[in-house]
Write a structure and sequence with these properties.
24% strand; Glucose Oxidase, domain 1; 14 strands; 249 residues
Length: 249
């Protein structure tokens, strides 16, 4: 890879999309106002469309601690450096693990365990001071997104000092977890089973990425581009660059 590699899955409003949690597909429609038609194809002067999407469910997105707080905390207010170090690792999810997960694990779960993640990090060249972790479990941008971290794996991520976690699955937590979001809480140092009125953190979680096959495991420079939405999550475009291009560590 000699140039930037985007980890974002393109959102095709008229074609195949990623999806999660039973959400409706993202849609687009022509904007109309009086005699104005926002479609050149329909005779209008320009194209102008209305887009409807749920960032958590329909697209590569980045979320902040406001995902779990009663107070409105916005991802656009998180201070993210222009470039930061990012370790890319490939991990095979496996349901056979003795790791913990709250509230429960099932035999058919696809779990990224702490041991598997640790081994992948070591193979990829982990060292202290790396700020971001991108986890690859798949070779195609679409399909089954049901993998998730064990609680022990998320604790390893926190101990390792990562401030930004990027995953190619729908959520760092199990989809049917009774709304516990235990891994989100571990990552943001929040108590389990408690309503969170307000909290502060500069750490982010990015979900629904896709790491191209020509991006090898290893250390890169990450430019995490986030739409300036005043929301807990927003569509994002993480871009990797060869670390040799920059002096980050």
């Amino acid at each position: 890879m000699q140039k930037g590699a985007s980890l974002a899955i393109r959102l095709d409003f008229g074609g195949q999309q990623v999806s999660a949690f039973g959400a409706s597909a993202a849609t687009s429609q022509v904007y109309r106002a009086g005699s104005f038609v926002g479609s050149v194809a329909e005779g209008g002067p320009c194209n102008c469309e209305i887009y409807t999407l749920t960032p958590h469910c329909n697209a590569t997105h980045t979320e902040c601690i406001g995902h779990l707080t009663a107070e409105k905390i916005f991802v656009c207010d998180v201070e993210i450096p222009l470039l930061t170090t990012c370790l890319v690792v490939s991990v095979e999810p496996d349901g056979q693990t003795s790791d913990e997960y709250y509230p429960r694990l099932s035999p058919d779960d696809k779990v990224v365990s702490a041991d598997a993640l640790h081994a992948a990090m070591q193979r990829a060249g982990f060292q202290s001071g790396i700020r971001a972790l991108a986890v690859r479990t798949r070779n195609e941008p679409f399909g089954d997104f049901s993998a998730f971290f064990s609680n022990d794996a998320m604790r390893l991520i926190r101990r390792s000092g990562f401030e930004h976690v990027l995953v190619d699955f729908a959520s760092v937590d199990k989809a049917d977890d009774d709304g516990k979001l235990s891994n989100h809480r571990i990552f943001w140092d929040l108590p389990q089973d408690s309503r969170i009125e307000s909290a502060k953190s500069q750490r982010t979680i990015t979900e629904f990425i896709f790491v191209p096959q020509d991006v090898s495991d290893g250390l890169y420079a990450l430019n995490l581009q986030i739409a300036p939405f005043m929301a807990d999550a927003a569509p994002s475009k993480p871009v990797l660059y060869p670390l040799s291009t920059f002096k980050l560590i």
